[in-house]
Structure formats: C-alpha cells, structure tokens
Amino acid sequence: MHPRPPGTTEWRRLFAAEAGSPRPDLSLLCLLIGTEADPSLDEAGMDAARRLLDRLAEQVAAGHRSCRAGGPLAWAVATSELLGASHGFKGRPGDYQRLDSSLLHQVLRRRRGLPILLSVVWMEVARRAGAPVHGIALPGHFIVGFGPPEDRVLADPFGGGRLLSGMDVELLVAAATGTPTAPSLLGTAGPLDIVARILNNIRVWAASRPECSDVSLWAVDLCLLLPTPSPRLHYERAQLLVQKGEFQAGARELDTYADEVAALDPTTADRVRRQALGARAMLN
After folding, report:
1. Is residue 230 helix, strand or coil?
2. 175: left (phi over 0), alpha (psi -120 to 50) or beta
C-alpha cells in the first residue's frame, strides 16, 4: 500500500480490489473511506489505526481469560468493559451531525461515532481477540452479536456496550422506525453490507448540505466500486456532476444509466437520454 499522490486513484483501486476479494477486510475498507474525506490519512495513519485495534484486542483477550462468565457472554462482557467502560467508546445524539462520526480513523481518535462505526470497532477488536462476533443491521440502528443465533448475546456499542435483551432490541427499533421487530431483522451483516450502509449514511449526511456536494460525489463513486452496485447510482452521480458544471461527464453518466435500464424501462431510458442531450447543450 502506498500513500495517494494528489490527483491519483491509488486508494480507490485498492478499495475496489478489496471489495471484490473473497474475504473483504472491513477495517481496511473503512479506513480507505477515510482517505476520501481526510487527505492527510496515509499509509502510516492507517497502519497506526490497525495497530490500535490490535492492542485493544490483546486487552480484550486478557479480560476474557479473567471473566467469570463463559461462552458468548464472556466475550460480550470483556469487549464492552474494555471499549465502553475503560476506554469510553460510545455515542451521543450530536454525533449524527458530524462526518467524522462515519470515519473509522476519527472514531478511533475521538472514541465517538455513529452506531455502525462503533460497532465496527467492537467487531474488529473482538474478532482479533478470537471472539465469535458479527454485526446486526437493525432498521435505524446497528448493534453487534456474540456467538451463534441460538446462544447469541447482543450489545449496543452506541450505548457504551450495554448488553441487550430481546425487549431492548424491540424498543431500539420502535424508537427508530415506529414498527415492531421481526426475527429476520437480526440476521448477520457482512463486511460489504456494512460498508454500503456506511456510505449510504455519508450520502444522507451530505445530501442535506449543498456545500458538501464533493462528499456526496466521492461517496457515490465508492458505492459504484462495490460489487453489483445499483444502476440508480449513475443517475445520482450524473446529477452531482451537472450541479458542479461538469456537463459532459454528467451526460455520460446519464447515458450509462439509460443503457442499464433500457431493457426493463424504455420510457425512463428515453427520458434520461433527453436529459443527457440537455446536459450537453449546456456546454454551448
């Protein structure tokens, strides 16, 4: 891995390669997202972040060995006591208003972040320590689970690692969505699911801030580097490019979107092609 010189796409090539690998490295993908928002984040900074995760994992492993509980509960307690109680990793409402709450290297520095990024910290530390851990993408919230479904212990990293009962999970989902929890919502979220959700959070954050159109654009660009991206992303990217005055590039994205939807929705394809012609006309 090499630091990204200005104007090159080295980090993006690495992001695409890692996302397409058989076993994507979640922490690496999250740190590569950080390079888009923070040009000062280089190879040394990413290495430092991963070494911190390693050191925290050693401490969790030691805590697990001394824990009186057994099985998944022991791992959940050891991880939460270290990260939440001892190191103060947790969230607060104001974190939703900050871009750095979605950037792993900043979350490790500030010990604050969105539920999904704090869950990434929990998962990456616990995994390195040897724990059976996975992420659970609830509607409107993200938590972690330790152990198999039949013996799973749930924890809320945003709440400092608070252990959750089934009723606690129902209340979390109801508070976020107003709807009850279905058992299917407790399925495991894989690394690419998590990365896609992080990028979607960034897109939502930037969408309400017109001055952050560059953030919207790089978040869409990274989404397009994930396997099987939604064709609709090309339309979103085209709109962002046209707003920036990059009419030719925006028109090309509109054409790409039209080509991808033409077979299933020729009416939409025709409309989008007319938009592409309009974008090119703005060059004159």
Report:
1. coil
2. alpha
